[in-house]
Structure formats: structure tokens, C-alpha cells
């Protein structure tokens, strides 16, 4: 038995399913998870000392690659001054100035500790501002694990084939209405059926939790129009896309401004961070100035802020990072199209996805058509050859600045091998 297997046996005795987040479990691909002991640049190393080229990147935050010296040194400096004060710090001001400076629609921003918290809080702000209860989300979009968001969610919920979570009171889920991604008519219909009752529409501007699904031309602009016509807030969940698809995120890339925006892991560079922000008149409703209550002992933690600031400043000062990861993304998608006949290849910028279905994949229903048993065989083939990807069909391949053309060519070649072996 390898060290990962040993650790997993121990873990299962004391942690539900042996993991602290279900997306880390390898159950759906018929394996035990690899326990990771360290990571550097585009490589991660498991407890048995095996090296893998990593296309998960801690699910998004490691856009510069693992253990980037600029981030590590900023953390080392911050740690020397103490870990947490539960009081205001200069780091937080600098972080807020940076985010507001990067994203025109964000006039005020509040730090929290995860994407889940960011979304939960943004939704509360939207409800408080509009004095309405109902929300529209899209099937297959994942917005963290708060009660109102676990309705037709993507990511681990989709992988496990659990339609909705137990433990979510019907009263919480009742106000969450679901529309179909890329289908403006489905949103229009919900507005027509619930006049004056919808507080917000929340969307992943590029859906990255049902595999990767790009917004069709006009979809995001159409949502903007529908929200304006109906007095609802448009919330972009940029936990994955923020500072990744461009420095100003999906809003910059697609030229659409949201009223509220949520961020996560990428602004902590791997430390636990989230944030929500947006229009001043909405964010001014948040405590202590307004009556929407939201708080956090560790929010704006100085070490997390130091890590995030180092990464975001690096990105601001090195636009060539975006040029590099964009070109890697294009190269990988072209390679995959050649390597994997009969499969849909999707993506945007440094996010890619290979769907085991001919496609086109445009929403939850078409993503769900993917052959997950075949995906599991593909996943195991890659892992055996030192390539670490998310253990689910319904997640993205994440590229970082540390990846090279050689890496993505090797990935495409390995996938081509898989398709050849499958045939024989
Ligand atoms: N929103 C989106 C779009 C996400 O992808 C995720 C997690 N991957 C979340 C929210 C929740 O973030 P967290 O896991 O940090 O709570």
C-alpha cells in the first residue's frame, strides 16, 4: 500500500469520506485520492514522492504557478508581524484599493474568507437593497454551499449526481429559481412569472463548474438588460473568472458590468479569501453603515491579504502573464480538438475542458450528456502518466503562467494516446 492509500485509510476514520471537500475525493473515478505533500511551479508531488504536472492549480488560485517566490516572500514577511489581530490593517486598504481600481463596477468591496461566504453575503446585500426575496440562478452553475445556492448546482453536486442537498430547508430553496444557462427566454419567463419579486440574477459569466461553458454572444448583455428592466441586481460570480480571464475579469473581457461581483481564492493566491463588492449604493447597505449584517473574525487576515496583494500586483505589473496563458489555452484547445475526435472542446482564456460528448455543450443538459465512465478511464490514464487533472468531467483544466508550450503539447499527446489505446 502506498503512503496516499495509508493516509486515506486513516483519514476515513476521522474525516467524512476522508476528505475536507468532496471534490477532492476520487470516488467517482474509482480511485483513492492522492495526498499532496508539496508543489512548485506547475508540478505537485504526492506523499509517495511521485511528481505530476498539475492542471488543477488548487482549483484556480495558483495562476502564477505554485510556490511563486513573490507570493511566498510576501507571506514570510507578513507572518513575522503576527497572524491575526481582528482589527483593521493597512493591507486591507491596499487590497480594497487594488480591487476597486481593477474593476470599474466595484466601488466598495468587503473581504470574507471563501467564495461561499462571498456569494452568501452578496445575495443578502441584493435582497436587502431591493427588498425582494427571490433569486435566479442557472442550472449547473456552482456558487458555494450556502443553502440558497444548492439548487441545481454544478461542481461536486453534479459529479455525485445529487440533484439537491439534504439539509436545505424547502423554505430556503423555494426562493431560488433556476433558469437554463445561455437561454435568455428562460430568464424572461421567470421575471414574467414573478413580477417585482426577483432580487437578483446570479451567474458564472463563464460557467466553470459544469465543465467549462462559454456564454453565447449576447447572453451576458441580455442578462444586464433583463435585470435593468426588472429592477433586479445582476451578480457576477467571478470566483473562477476574476483576475483570470483578464485583470478586470469577465466584466472586462465581455464588456458587461454587474451590480455586484463575488471573488474567491484567486485574490488570496492560495490563502483562504473571498470578497464581494459592487455599486456604492448597494454596498452602503452593508453593516456597519447599513442594515445588511455580515461580519468575520478572520476577514481581511493580514497574511492572506499579503499573499493576495503580492499576486494581484504581480498580475497588474505583468500583463504578459495574460498573453502567455491565453496563448497556452488556445494551443491546448487546438491540440485537444486534434487528439480527441468526437469530443467537444470548450474553454475561454486559460480555462479549458474536454467533454466526452460530441456537443455542442451550451448548458447543464448538454454537459450532463457526457460519458462519465469514459471520463473516469481517461482520468486514470492521465494520472498514471503523471498528469493531475480534476477527478470530474464537470470541472475545468486550469492553466498557469508556470505551464509551458511543452506541457500543453505533452498533455494533448497523452490524450491522443488515450484515444488510440481505447480504439485497440
Ligand atoms: N463560486 C464559484 C464560481 C466557484 O467555482 C466556487 C468554488 N469553486 C465557489 C463559488 C465557492 O468557493 P469556496 O469553495 O471558496 O467556498
TrEMBL record:
InterPro entries: 4pyrrol_synth_GluAld_NH2Trfase, Aminotrans_3, Aminotrans_3_PPA_site, PyrdxlP-dep_Trfase, PyrdxlP-dep_Trfase_major, PyrdxlP-dep_Trfase_small
Any one annotated GO CC term: cytoplasm
Location of the protein in the cell: Cytoplasm
Highest taxon in the source lineage: Bacteria
Annotated catalysed reactions: (S)-4-amino-5-oxopentanoate = 5-aminolevulinate
Pfam families: Aminotran_3
SUPFAM superfamilies on file: PLP-dependent transferases
Co-factor requirement: pyridoxal 5'-phosphate
GO MF assignments: glutamate-1-semialdehyde 2,1-aminomutase activity; pyridoxal phosphate binding; transaminase activity
The enzyme's E.C. designation: 5.4.3.8
Entry keywords, A to Z: Cytoplasm, Isomerase, Porphyrin biosynthesis, Pyridoxal phosphate
Pathway: Porphyrin-containing compound metabolism; protoporphyrin-IX biosynthesis; 5-aminolevulinate from L-glutamyl-tRNA(Glu): step 2/2
Primary localization: cytoplasm
Entry-linked Gene3D superfamilies: Aspartate Aminotransferase, domain 1, Type I PLP-dependent aspartate aminotransferase-like (Major domain)
List of residues that carry N6-(pyridoxal phosphate)lysine: 265
Broad enzyme group: isomerase
Any one GO biological process: protoporphyrinogen IX biosynthetic process
Family in the record: Belongs to the class-III pyridoxal-phosphate-dependent aminotransferase family. HemL subfamily.
Assembly, per entry: Homodimer.
Name used for this protein in its record: Glutamate-1-semialdehyde 2,1-aminomutase
Gene: hemL
Amino acid at each position: 500500500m502506498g503512503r496516499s492509500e495509508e493516509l486515506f485509510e486513516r483519514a476515513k476514520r476521522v474525516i467524512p469520506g476522508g476528505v475536507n471537500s468532496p471534490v477532492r475525493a476520487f470516488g467517482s473515478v474509482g480511485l483513492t485520492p492522492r495526498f499532496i505533500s508539496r508543489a512548485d511551479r506547475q508540478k505537485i508531488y504526492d506523499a509517495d514522492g511521485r511528481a505530476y504536472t498539475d492542471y488543477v492549480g488548487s482549483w484556480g488560485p495558483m495562476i502564477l504557478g505554485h510556490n511563486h517566490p513573490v507570493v511566498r516572500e510576501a507571506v514570510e514577511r507578513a507572518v513575522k508581524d503576527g497572524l491575526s489581530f481582528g482589527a483593521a490593517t493597512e493591507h486591507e486598504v491596499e487590497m480594497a484599493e487594488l480591487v476597486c481600481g481593477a474593476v470599474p463596477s466595484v466601488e466598495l468591496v468587503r473581504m470574507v474568507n471563501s467564495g461561499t461566504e462571498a456569494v452568501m453575503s452578496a445575495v443578502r446585500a441584493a435582497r436587502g437593497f431591493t427588498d425582494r426575496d427571490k433569486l435566479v440562478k442557472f442550472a449547473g452553475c456552482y456558487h458555494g454551499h450556502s443553502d440558497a445556492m444548492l439548487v441545481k448546482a454544478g461542481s461536486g453536486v453534479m459529479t455525485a449526481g445529487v440533484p439537491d442537498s439534504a439539509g436545505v430547508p424547502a423554505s430556503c430553496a423555494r426562493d431560488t429559481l433556476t433558469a437554463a444557462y445561455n437561454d435568455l427566454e428562460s430568464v424572461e419567463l421567470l421575471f414574467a412569472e414573478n413580477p417585482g419579486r426577483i432580487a437578483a440574477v446570479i451567474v458564472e459569466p463563464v460557467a466553470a463548474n459544469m465543465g467549462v461553458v462559454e456564454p453565447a454572444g449576447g447572453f451576458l448583455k441580455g442578462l444586464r438588460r433583463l435585470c435593468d428592466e426588472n429592477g433586479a441586481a445582476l451578480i457576477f460570480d467571478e470566483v473562477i473568472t476574476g483576475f483570470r480571464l483578464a485583470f478586470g475579469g469577465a466584466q472586462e473581457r465581455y464588456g458587461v458590468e454587474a451590480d455586484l461581483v463575488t471573488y474567491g481564492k484567486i485574490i488570496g493566491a492560495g490563502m483562504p479569501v473571498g470578497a464581494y463588492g459592487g455599486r456604492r449604493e448597494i454596498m452602503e447597505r452593508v453593516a456597519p453603515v447599513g442594515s445588511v449584517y455580515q461580519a468575520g473574525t478572520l476577514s481581511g487576515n493580514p497574511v492572506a491579504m499579503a499573499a493576495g496583494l503580492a499576486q494581484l500586483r504581480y498580475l497588474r505589473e505583468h500583463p504578459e502573464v495574460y498573453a502567455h496563458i491565453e496563448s497556452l489555452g488556445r494551443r491546448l484547445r487546438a491540440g485537444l480538438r486534434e487528439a480527441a475526435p468526437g469530443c467537444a472542446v470548450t474553454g475561454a482564456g486559460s480555462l479549458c475542458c474536454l467533454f466526452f460528448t460530441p456537443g455542442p455543450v451550451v448548458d447543464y443538459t448538454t454537459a450532463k450528456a457526457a460519458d462519465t465512465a469514459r471520463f473516469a478511464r481517461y482520468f486514470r490514464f492521465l494520472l498514471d502518466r503523471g498528469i493531475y487533472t480534476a477527478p470530474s468531467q464537470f470541472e475545468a483544466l486550469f492553466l498557469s503562467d508556470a505551464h509551458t508550450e511543452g506541457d500543453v503539447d505533452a498533455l494533448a499527446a497523452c490524450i491522443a494516446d488515450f484515444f488510440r489505446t481505447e480504439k485497440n
